[in-house]
Amino acid sequence: MGIINTNPVAKTSVDNGLSEKGKKQTVKAALKLKAMGACDDGCWIWPSITQRAYQAAEVIAAVNGISRSYIVPEYSFLDARGLGGYEGRSLEVVSEVYASDTVSPRNKPPPIDDGTPSESVEDVFVRVTQLMSILETQYSGETVIIVSPDSDNLTVLQAGLVGLDLRRHHELSFEPGEVRFVDINSIPAYKQPASAVYKCLNPPSCT
Question: Which of 71, 74, 81, 138 is the most exposed place for a label (fewest CB within 10 A)?
Fold first, then answer.
């Protein structure tokens, strides 16, 4: 409908399900995953509990021959980014959100009193980092397909993985139904901060 809808209260509503266009995009995505061999050796599918994301996960599982028992719904870490006062407005105003993001990852959309959160890029980064911590702990070495109800979860996650300034996350924007493989080789090696390398022997006088 071209309307911003990020209030988590409505995420399981049937009105938040896939449109006919969305169903076609999902089938294409599922077939692309099959062509990539994503689930040839088995895979886990982690969708947001949002209706459209969970429906997409079911299609992906069916096309790739994966049992529904391997679909693990995520109840909060994959919620669509809360856009606060932009709720209910045209998708065209998202450009204003991204313009604000480029100034600071701490900038939040204007608040609203209907329960829709106003999340900054940093807020989203905290959520997706927590998600990755769970996946690394429980599914190390496994293939995991993340199905998000919006682009920002994925762009912020990818920006964090590849070391891109979070203020530029929107440059990685996903199209509806887009499949993207993040190659582990594109993730730079972790560098310890100076505080972890150098020890102060005579605090507070340190050199």
Answer: 138
Q: How far apart are CA 173 and CA 158, in angstroms?
A: 10
With DSSP H G I counted as helix, E B as strand and the rest as coil, what are the percentages for the chain, rounded to 5?
45, 5, 45
Q: Which residues contact 75 (CB under 8 A, 6 or more apart)?
A: 49
CA–CA distance, 45 with 48 (Å, rounded to integer): 10
Which string of DSSP letters, residue by residue, matches 101-157?
Answer: HHH-TT--PPP-SSS--B--HHHHHHHHHHHHHHHHHHSTTS-EEEE-SSSHHHHHH
pLDDT at 190 over 60: no
**Which tokens go with 24?**
């076609």
Q: What is the pLDDT of residues 76-85, one digit of tens each?
A: 899 999 999 9
Reported as a single tens digit per residue, the pLDDT across 2-44 is 888 898 888 778 778 899 999 999 999 999 999 999 999 999 9
Tell me what the pLDDT averaged over the chain comes to. 89
Whether the pLDDT of residue 104 is over 60: the answer is yes
CA 162 from chain center: how many Å?
A: 14
Spatial separation of the C-alpha atoms in residues 23 and 32, rounded to whole Å: 14
Consecutive H or E run containing 46 = strand 44-47
Per the rule left: phi > 0, alpha: psi between -120 and 50, beta: everything else, 75 is: alpha
pLDDT 10s digits, 144-159? 999 999 999 999 999 9
